[in-house]
Amino acid sequence: MNLLDAQLVNLTGQVGVVTGSGRGLGRVFAQTLGLAGASVAVLARSGDEIAETATLIEGAGGRALALRCDVTDADAVRAAMAEIERALGPIDLLLNNAGAVGSIGPFWESDIEEWWGVVEANLRSAVVCSRMVLPAMIARRRGRIVNVASGGGTRPIAYFSGYGAGKAAMIRFAECVAAEARPFGVSVFSLGPGTVRTALSEHSLNSPEGRKWLPWFRRIFEEGLDLPAERPAQLALVLASGRADPLSGCYLQVSDDIDAITARAEQVAAGKLYSLRVRGLEAATPSETVAAIVFASEHALDTGHS
């Protein structure tokens, strides 16, 4: 996707907020919303970086506001959101992109403060920012929140527990808030961006702990399976447009055909698809049950516990 494709969606008159937008995915998210006509507030702790993002948006003919802000600090976020409303108008879209990786390795060797800091960077930032924008969205009976999550929050990845726990919590948080906000016309989504080369992914690739504990990660890039940042930005734009509102609460990935899934929204809701769920044997098909029993038997034999 070329960023200019963003002009196929018209967000003129809307106000979007993108956290962690000083670089990487967040910057491309913000630029894409700007090209689609939205006024964009860019938030991050790095003043120089968000100023550059705002300059890029304005240079392409858009309107932007850069605010230096620690998005895990409730008081700072409250002040930032108030300033955005004064300068740009009511907030229509919040894109919670801020996050961190950190704490790679066996959990029992982790520094607990560093580990918890990763969870906070991913979950608390989304919680704080959502809490500050939701009351006005509920009152106006419109608005959208998109949490940038990860496949790492939907399945276990060894030596990556802090990141996985934070992203899984983000996804469940979005499901819960979506259920609460749906009657008020407010939609909440989780977005799976795929693997994109960013500063965060570079840490997993090139840090000593990443090289030691996540050697498989490098193969994604070596085999060309990583994605350009414009792919998840296009998905964010689709969610911002309202086309996927019947799927509020869902975890949606860049590989998903959003229009096809939306057309079957009733089936998605009935089956609780595209969401975090625990499935027991009673919910499995006969073939899945047999496969699970065979796996358990083989595992017992392998480990000497038959």
Give a count of the beta strands, DSSP E runs of length 2 or more: 7
Distance between the termini: 53 Å
Summed over residues and divided by their number, the pLDDT gives a mean of: 87
Radius of gyration: 20 Å
Could you give a quick summary of the protein structure above?
The protein has helices at 24-35, 47-59, 74-87, 112-140, 161-181, 199-206, 208-213, 216-222, 230-241, 258-262, 265-270, 286-302; strands spanning 15-19, 39-44, 63-68, 93-96, 143-148, 186-192, 251-253.
Account of the protein in words:
Helix 1 (24-35) packs across helix 9, helix 3 packs parallel to helix 4 and helix 4 runs parallel beside helix 5 (161-181). A seven-stranded parallel beta sheet has the order 3-2-1-4-5-6-7, sandwiched between helices. The longest helix is centred in the middle third of the chain and has 29 residues, at 112-140. It is 49% helix and 12% strand. With 306 residues, the chain is of the alpha/beta class.
Keywords:
306 residues, 12 helices, disordered C terminus, seven-stranded parallel β-sheet, alpha/beta
Write the layout of secondary structure elements.
Blueprint: E1 15-19, H1 24-35, E2 39-44, H2 47-59, E3 63-68, H3 74-87, E4 93-96, H4 112-140, E5 143-148, H5 161-181, E6 186-192, H6 199-206, H7 208-213, H8 216-222, H9 230-241, E7 251-253, H10 258-262, H11 265-270, H12 286-302
Parallel strand pairs: 1-2, 1-4, 2-3, 4-5, 5-6, 6-7
Helix pairs in contact: 1-2, 1-9, 3-4, 4-5
